[in-house]
Amino acid sequence: MEKLIINGPTPLKGEVNISGAKNSAVAILPATLLIDGVCTINNVPNIMDVKLSCQILEGLGAKIKWIDKNSIEIDTRNITNTIAPIDLTRKFRASYYLIGSMLGRKKEIEVGLPGGCNLGARPIDQHIKGFEALGAEVEITGGNVRATAKHLIGSNIYMDIVSVGATINVMLASVLAEGTTIIDNAAKEPHIVDIANFLNTMGADIRGAGTDMIKINGVKSLKGGQSYSVVPDQIEAGTFMLAAIASKGDLIIKNCITKHLECITAKILEIGGNVDMNGDKLRVWCDKRPSKAIIKTLPYPGFPTDLQPQMGVVLSLAEGTSIINESIWESRFQYTNELNKMGAQITAQGKSAIFEGVTKLSGASVYSTDLRAGAALIVAGIAAEGRTEVYNLEHIDRGYENIEEKFRNIGADIVRVVE
Ligand code: UD1
């Protein structure tokens, strides 16, 4: 079993480069199934979810060639299977994008019900509603989802809730459908725009991504022959921003889209931190104890749920009493038990948590309960006094590229060891 050993506290100082966005990459890779050709994807984060996505694509007949550690050439001319490797698809959430892509490409697909972080109930009813509106039939049996269609015909689809996954999945299914599809009450996250840009680069006709109404005019085929670069990871950038604040450090965060970070920046300024935006980089620093805040997680452009645990670490150390309301996931406060082992004073109940700020955290053995919780525990370990051991690294490795190396390069005393 691997664990991270962190000796703190260390104020993080220096420069860090942000990788390509996990949540974009895990949608763009299945989206290549819509292409009858070869394409190259650059700025792909080298993470476990990407490796799994590649294995699944290979299982369906695609040919994958890693050009370097962040670039992949994908040949999807010969897609032979319509049953995805079931065990692999169960390992992570984004395997549900195979349904939209393969409905478009082959009008048929079977995948395992998607797994991923345990954040509470993760229904896919809005995805299914969208597929059915386009003319597909979807069956769930024995833990598998099977979707088939004779024809896919464009339709007007109103999403009952704002869902990132359902918006992308219905977009994927409608790219090659006959006629026009309109997705109303669509999610607006940066990676939705990224997937639309990718598909348009390959020949799709998608308009309005990034607003709450997306219009997709079906096209006959996507040809490939192009390369595309994945957008920088908003959540990784936000994780380092909050790590700078929690550790009272001073970081230059490079290769990011600062527009995507405005909601986090606003909160950092509110609690007394400093942010200086300059082109595709930003400087974040903090030389005093942050002050309390009230946070509610919301779909983009609101405060992202995927930065809630990292913000929880900052608020654990803030002056005064803070409140976080988690409006997206019902079980996203499991990390607070781990932070309390480090001396935090957090009371979580249902979708709310109260943080009584403490002056210091102390090292402890802690277990990541999901991907972002794991990142938060690393940040806590860097800010805490003494030795922290972080376990269950498989969660963290799913979504962060070289995380300990990146933190080590900015001064953290952090090593990965095999127990
Ligand atoms: C994506 C992200 C995840 C992030 C989340 C919210 C990926 C691979 N994952 O997850 O990191 O935390 O967005 O920003 O991009 N819901 C339904 N029915 C559905 C679909 C969703 O009720 O059919 C509900 C969910 O239970 C949740 C809310 O809608 O309460 C938002 O979920 P959604 O935006 O779909 O999250 P994911 O796409 O799974």
Written description of the protein model:
This protein has 419 residues and is an alpha+beta fold. Helix content is 32%, strand content 26%. It has 14 helices and 23 strands. The chain has helices at residues 22-31, 48-60, 86-89, 97-106, 125-133, 164-174, 190-201, 234-246, 262-270, 308-316, 335-341, 371-383, 393-397, 403-409, and strands at residues 2-8, 13-17, 38-42, 63-68, 71-75, 108-112, 137-141, 144-148, 156-158, 180-184, 205-207, 213-217, 227-229, 250-254, 274-278, 281-285, 294-296, 321-325, 345-349, 352-356, 365-367, 386-391, 413-418. The strands form 6 sheets. A 4-stranded mixed beta sheet has the order 21-22-1-23, with helices on one face. The longest helix has 13 residues, at 48-60. The protein is globular, with a radius of gyration of 21 Å. The model has no long low-confidence stretch (mean pLDDT 96). Residues 23, 26, 93-94, 121-127, 161, 163-166, 187, 305-306, 328-329 line the site of uridine-diphosphate-N-acetylglucosamine.
A few lines on this structure:
This protein is α+β, with helices and mostly antiparallel strands and 419 residues long. The protein contains 14 helices and 23 strands.
Task: Please render the helix and strand layout as text.
Blueprint: E1 2-8, E2 13-17, H1 22-31, E3 38-42, H2 48-60, E4 63-68, E5 71-75, H3 86-89, H4 97-106, E6 108-112, H5 125-133, E7 137-141, E8 144-148, E9 156-158, H6 164-174, E10 180-184, H7 190-201, E11 205-207, E12 213-217, E13 227-229, H8 234-246, E14 250-254, H9 262-270, E15 274-278, E16 281-285, E17 294-296, H10 308-316, E18 321-325, H11 335-341, E19 345-349, E20 352-356, E21 365-367, H12 371-383, E22 386-391, H13 393-397, H14 403-409, E23 413-418
Parallel strand pairs: 2-14, 3-13, 9-10, 17-18, 21-22
Antiparallel strand pairs: 1-22, 1-23, 3-5, 4-5, 6-8, 7-8, 10-12, 11-12, 14-16, 15-16, 18-20, 19-20
Helix pairs in contact: 1-2, 1-4, 1-7, 4-6, 5-6, 8-10, 8-12, 10-12
